[in-house]
Amino acid sequence: MQAWILPQWGAPSDLRFESVSVPELSAGEVLVEVRAAGLNFADGLMIAGKYQVKPPLPFILGAELSGVVAVAPPDSKFRPGDRVAAQVWTGAYAQYCAVEERRLIRLPPNLSFAQGAALPVSYTTAHVALFRDGGIALGKRVLVHAAAGGIGVAATQLAKAAGAWVIATASTSQKLAVAEANGADVMVNYREPDWTGMVRAAAPRGVDMVVDPVGGDITLQSLHHLAWRGRLLLVGFASGAPAQIPANRLLVKAAAAVGVYWNFENDGPLIERIQAELAERAAAGEIRPLVGARFPLEDYRQALQELGEGRTVGKVVLDL
């Protein structure tokens, strides 16, 4: 099979696209024929050796996939031909991937494989942020940054489905149009000099939570908009840098900054429930994954560059 191999920590130029053996299954695993794989900002950190997980080198890159079950053990609840999606530590950027059965999500028939590749990471992360870490409920005020990106689209849809009021920020008018079409109530361009004033005018009493996949100055400026006992949900650092958060800003509002992170090792039963719920919501049309760009598997470097430069909306997907 063809796959993207990372032989050493470094840069995308160090990746190799080459032929490797189809993975052999270990106990509890299912072999999936990959039809689509989702890109994430964490890819760049993984390539550079700066991600919190460092698999033994060399390894196949990629953490999010959808496809068809090719081989399943006799005692599995899955059968060859079943449409599935999954988050994995590595291995998604290949024609086949061995996946722990507990990680598999059954794809509803109304989702394409490209849309299915958005569920395992983006939607799961947004759900964990809003419900587990943010305590979202009817009437809550939510500020979603990078609202036209993979996490932002998912967070806006889930927040609106919960009855929240959403201020969406993005960097261009095109992306703000995506946020508006996605259901956001107020749109703000955070490239405008007075974007914080626009947020303050929309929510003079502040917001109950901020979904922040950007980091850097955006994080620091978001502190001004937290309401009493607000939650700053730190999802990622697409800007390239985490912020040094002044604790006094949190103290005077009895607020909290929460790192949004999950994995099957620590949160397995919870994540299985969340992902089953997401599949049900997708089947009912309550959530609608947005695929903004698609590339052939062999064009991964180009796809990663466009994602990193902020030229895409929604989920960026590799087609196989």
Report the CATH topology name of the largest domain: Quinone Oxidoreductase, Chain A, domain 1
Estimate the global geometry from the Cα principal axes.
globular
Strand content: 25-35%
**Overall residue-averaged pLDDT value:** 95
State the end-to-end distance.
11 Å
CATH class of the largest domain: Alpha Beta
What kind of sheet is the major sheet?
7 strands, mixed
Structural summary, described in words:
- The protein has 320 residues and is of the alpha/beta class.
- The chain has 2 domains: 2-118 and 289-319, Quinone Oxidoreductase, Chain A, domain 1; 122-259, NAD(P)-binding Rossmann-like Domain (Rossmann fold, 3-Layer(aba) Sandwich).
- 30% of the residues lie in helices and 27% in strands.
- It has 10 helices and 16 strands.
- Strands 3, 5, 6, 7, 8, 15 and 16 form a 7-stranded mixed beta sheet that branches. It has a 6-stranded parallel beta sheet with strand order 11-10-9-12-13-14, sandwiched between helices.
- β15 (291-296), α10 and β16 (315-319) form a beta-alpha-beta unit.
- The longest helix has 20 residues, at 264-283.
- The mean pLDDT is 95.
Essential attributes:
single chain, 320 residues, alpha/beta, Quinone Oxidoreductase, Chain A, domain 1, Rossmann fold, 2 domains, six-stranded parallel sheet, 30% helix, 27% strand
Could you write a compact summary of the structure shown?
The chain is α/β, with parallel strands linked by helices.
